[in-house]
């Protein structure tokens, strides 16, 4: 009889009552939803007392059949072993579980110590030795957050940590309340969590600042309230205390207007699971600023003293309150959604299964909700990031009802995954080296498989309509197919692609600043076209401030800084223009940065006096620059103009469809930028000398403001979401 091989085995002590069990439950549910088989391997921790039951979250998984509990004396075979909670291995195991796996990941979900003692809870070297002895020498060590990573390295500077964190995940569909009005007549603040003194402020004064004793405020606490009252010596009249486990966290969060969490300053909080749950439920989270690396602008950061003023400000401004809720939901879905977990499993040899048994999503205990139908977004091009970035720009603005799934031929697939998208990589024909007929069959089969697997309501294609795409669209007519067709094609090119437009149900056209100079074939083909403003990944408000941008880019104060970004180098050789441009700018007094594309197939050649930066998206840091010399591809072109950055465009003449020359000429003609059409000649010297003058750069910035345009990404997302809703209503 052949032994069962599980896709994932999770080894931990399943009696932990808090975040460890919640994180495991979230991953198991995501795995079950994707048709993956999970085994749970229980190993008692020496720090949990005997007789404790399994966490209710784990027991529920087993009752629902979403995971199988490994038999203690039997062998467990799995493609991937995920080990959680390093404190299990602070002593030799009495019984070593028999787990055979192709790969092993040790998830470090607790710091080795705290602020006072970096090795209070465990010794990193000792844990590494035991885990390697039990499960083999090749183990991937993955912290759950930047804070844990820093603490591990503080304790053990030579620790071999994975490049990416094994962050926690959450399914917004299981938590989202959709509440658009306050819980009661006065603001309701609250928190939930296990009973542990370090989870609370250290002093009574800070405690009452964070959770004020006021007649016109209410405070609700689920778990640990006895610690707070012991510190105060009483229970404030406006506080309601519930024992841990008295309510399900999802149900409890529906009773709050604000989630407030502050803890002992010595505690190194691994992640902040309860904060993630609050944001997923639509409750604004007010926390300390040390959580910013995890939650960005999705949470509200202050000190205990700032809690009450912040609560009253948002209570009085419902529009701002709703904006905070929406921003948090967007980040949670994008960065911490289940798709990010499935993507990292796929990277470790555990792909999802097309014949998955779909488990119903649940909210609280018993309210079932249907699984959202996504928008499948297909991008072309293994040489650049333009197609992929446009789709990510739209995808990050889609509502929860139709999240994005990215399928791309770009080398930048890992970037989409890093940005929080469930990502599928389709190697291009050039990468596979296939003749065209075999490539057509491959592309059609892969697309049909992805449609059957993810059940999208809409497929949005930012690519020319290859034969395989057209065939897949014909084979899956119950899905709405949209061509995201960038304009500004070269004259007398692409007629064969335009002729295939009727294969799609609609055409979404990103706007083009240089539309007046567009002489390509898309100008005459307007049937079924839905046009929006130019699509950009970031809005103006997403840009880092000048100080932060200069710090990230390594720019020094007191001297202007120029960035040269002439493309990935995968289409055209950029070495000579880079060297000459860098020398000319350096001689003019600039600090010179060279942007290396995240998907460049060769590293940027060294240039004397210039420093290479490799950041995505680099547009986030444009405010730290005084000048950019750039190719005039669609994305960079519109970002530089929209954000008012003085620019010199050097068009790439060797693109197949994109008319970069006409685009750059038009920007120069309007006075919004400068242009160098022949970087090999004297024109480069003349134009860069002009751009080096401060008054010229100031004039370019002013002109950009005069001819400015908006970001069409949100409008594009709304249109696709509307098509998705129509598809769902029609029962397709």
Automatic annotation (TrEMBL):
Q: What residues does the Glycosyl transferase family 28 C-terminal domain cover?
A: 618-689
**Entry keyword set:** Transferase
Q: Which domain of life is it from?
A: Bacteria
Q: Which Gene Ontology molecular-function terms are recorded?
A: hexosyltransferase activity
What Pfam families does this protein map onto? Glyco_tran_28_C, Glyco_trans_1_4
Q: Which SUPFAM superfamilies match?
A: UDP-Glycosyltransferase/glycogen phosphorylase
Query: What does UniProt give as the signal peptide span?
Result: none
Instruction: Supply the name of the protein.
Output: Glycosyl transferase family 28
Q: Does the keyword Transport apply?
A: no
InterPro entries reported for this sequence: Glyco_trans_28_C (IPR007235)
Keyword hit for RNA-binding = no
């Amino acid at each position: 009889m052949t032994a069962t091989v599980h896709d994932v085995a999770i080894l931990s002590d399943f009696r932990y009552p808090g975040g460890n069990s919640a994180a495991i439950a979230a991953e198991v549910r995501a795995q079950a939803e994707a048709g993956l088989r999970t085994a749970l391997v229980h190993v008692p921790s020496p720090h949990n007392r005997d007789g404790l039951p399994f966490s209710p979250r784990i027991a529920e998984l087993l009752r629902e059949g979403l995971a199988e509990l490994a038999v203690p004396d039997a062998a467990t075979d799995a493609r991937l072993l995920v080990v959680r909670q390093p404190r299990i291995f602070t002593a030799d195991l009495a019984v070593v579980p028999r787990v055979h796996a192709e790969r092993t990941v040790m998830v470090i979900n607790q710091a080795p110590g705290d602020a006072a003692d970096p090795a209070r809870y465990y010794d990193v070297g000792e844990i590494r030795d035991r885990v390697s002895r039990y499960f083999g020498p090749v183990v991937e060590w993955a912290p759950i957050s930047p804070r844990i990573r820093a603490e591990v390295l503080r304790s053990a500077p030579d620790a071999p940590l994975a490049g990416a964190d094994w962050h926690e995940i959450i399914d917004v569909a299981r938590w989202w309340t959709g509440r658009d009005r306050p819980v009661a007549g006065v603001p309701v603040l609250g928190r939930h969590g296990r009973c542990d003194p370090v989870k609370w402020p250290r002093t009574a004064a800070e405690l009452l600042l964070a959770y004020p004793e006021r007649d016109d405020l209410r405070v609700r606490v689920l778990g640990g309230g006895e610690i707070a009252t012991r510190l105060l010596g009483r229970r404030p009249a406006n506080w309601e205390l519930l024992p841990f486990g008295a309510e399900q966290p999802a149900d409890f969060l529906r009773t709050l207007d604000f989630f407030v969490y502050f803890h002992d300053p010595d505690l190194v909080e691994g992640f902040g699971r309860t904060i993630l749950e609050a944001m997923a439920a639509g409750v604004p989270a007010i926390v300390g600023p040390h959580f910013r690396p995890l939650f960005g602008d999705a949470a509200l950061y202050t000190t205990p003293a700032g809690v009450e003023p912040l609560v009253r400000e948002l209570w009085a401004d419902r529009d701002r309150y709703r904006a905070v809720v929406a921003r948090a939901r967007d980040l949670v879905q994008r960065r911490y959604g289940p798709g990010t977990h499935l993507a990292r499993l796929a990277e470790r040899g555990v792909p999802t299964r097309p014949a998955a048994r779909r488990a119903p999503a649940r909210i609280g205990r018993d309210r079932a909700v249907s699984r959202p139908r996504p928008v499948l977004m297909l991008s072309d091009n293994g040489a650049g990031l333009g197609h992929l970035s446009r789709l990510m720009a739209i995808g990050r603005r889609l509502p929860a009802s139709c999240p994005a799934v990215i399928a791309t031929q770009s080398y930048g697939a890992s970037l989409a995954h890093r940005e929080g998208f469930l990502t599928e990589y389709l190697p291009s024909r050039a990468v596979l080296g296939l003749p065209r007929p075999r490539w057509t069959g491959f592309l059609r089969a892969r697309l049909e498989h992805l449609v059957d697997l993810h059940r999208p309501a809409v497929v949005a294609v930012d690519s020319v309509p290859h034969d395989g795409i057209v065939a897949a669209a014909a084979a899956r007519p119950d899905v709405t197919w949209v061509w995201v067709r960038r304009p500004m094609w070269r004259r007398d090119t692409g007629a064969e692609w335009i002729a295939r437009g009727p294969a799609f149900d609609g055409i979404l056209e990103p706007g083009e600043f240089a539309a007046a100079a567009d002489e390509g074939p898309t100008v005459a083909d307007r049937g079924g076209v839905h046009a929006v403003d130019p699509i950009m990944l970031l809005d103006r408000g997403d840009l880092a401030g000048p100080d932060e941008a200069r710090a990230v880019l390594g720019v020094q104060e007191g001297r202007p800084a120029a960035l040269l970004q002439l493309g990935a180098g995968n289409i055209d050789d950029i070495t000579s223009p880079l060297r000459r441009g860098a020398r000319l700018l350096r001689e003019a007094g600039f600090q010179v940065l060279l942007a290396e594309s995240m998907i460049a197939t060769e590293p940027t050649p060294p240039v004397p006096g210039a420093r290479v930066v490799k950041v995505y998206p680099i547009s986030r840091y444009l405010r730290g620059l005084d000048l950019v010399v750039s190719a005039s591809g669609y994305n960079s072109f519109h970002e530089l103009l929209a954000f008012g950055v003085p620019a010199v465009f050097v068009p790439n003449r060797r693109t197949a469809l994109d008319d970069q020359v006409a685009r750059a000429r038009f920007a120069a003609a309007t006075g919004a930028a400068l242009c160098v059409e022949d970087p090999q000649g004297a024109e480069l010297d003349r134009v860069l000398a002009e751009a080096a003058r401060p008054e010229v750069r100031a004039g370019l910035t002013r002109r950009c403001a005069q001819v400015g345009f908006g970001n069409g990404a949100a409008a594009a997302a709304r249109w696709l979401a509307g098509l998705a809703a129509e598809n769902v209503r029609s029962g397709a």
